[in-house]
């Protein structure tokens, strides 16, 4: 009796378990598993060119970092060679942040000029530029004088052309004198010449008679 009950209970459990497994949805239709969010790579901060050259630790609020990036070491090397790191830091701390970038550019330019010309430095470059400006101003003044002269010549030429055109139009307006028309002056001149010819002929005739 006990063995049969046990067998019946086992069969019933197996039947229910197989039914529950068959009624469950297949694993292929389930949603794919979500991957965990990828963590961004750690941000590695490189020291600025000034701190790298000076071999010191670059802090978060480094005064030189915004103006001397790590990819431009020659910029700080040139300025440091002429002014020195302490003077550069002192200059930047005395200025407001809005003027520091221009100050750094000016220091780098002056340092390059001092390296190229140790005697005159930036003053030599300024004198050379002023000389070029003076030469260009003189050339501009000569060009303006030539322009004024050419404009005067053009105006004189236009005036002469206008006068010649007015004269030609005046000559065309006067009617020509025809040869068939005889004026009183011309008739008087012809009569005088005729009388003169008769007197000459009479004198010649008298001379021939006496001879």
UniProtKB/TrEMBL annotation:
All copies of domain LOB, residue ranges: 46-147
Domain of life: Eukaryota
Biased composition (Low complexity): 1-32
Ranges for region Disordered: 1-39
Pfam families found in the cross-reference section: LOB (PF03195)
Stated family: Belongs to the LOB domain-containing protein family.
Protein name: LOB domain-containing protein 1
Organism: Iris pallida (Sweet iris)
């Amino acid at each position: 009796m006990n063995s049969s009950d046990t067998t019946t209970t086992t069969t019933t459990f197996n039947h229910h378990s197989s039914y529950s497994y068959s009624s469950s949805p297949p694993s292929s239709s389930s949603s794919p598993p979500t991957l965990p969010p990828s963590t961004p790579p750690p941000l590695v901060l490189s020291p600025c060119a000034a701190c790298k050259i000076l071999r010191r630790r670059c802090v978060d609020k480094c005064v030189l970092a915004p103006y001397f990036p790590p990819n431009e070491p020659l910029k700080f090397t040139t300025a440091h060679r002429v002014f020195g790191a302490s003077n550069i830091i002192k200059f930047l701390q005395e200025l407001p942040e809005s003027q520091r970038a221009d100050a750094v550019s000016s220091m780098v330019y002056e340092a390059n000029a001092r390296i190229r010309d140790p005697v005159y430095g930036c003053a030599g470059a300024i004198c050379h530029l002023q000389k070029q400006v003076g030469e260009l101003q003189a050339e501009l003044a000569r060009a303006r004088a030539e322009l004024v002269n050419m404009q005067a010549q053009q105006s004189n030429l236009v005036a002469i052309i206008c006068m010649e055109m007015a004269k030609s139009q005046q000559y065309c307006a006067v009617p020509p004198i025809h040869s068939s028309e005889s004026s009183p002056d011309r008739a008087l001149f012809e009569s005088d010449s005729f009388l003169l010819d008769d007197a000459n002929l009479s004198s010649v005739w008298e001379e021939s008679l006496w001879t």
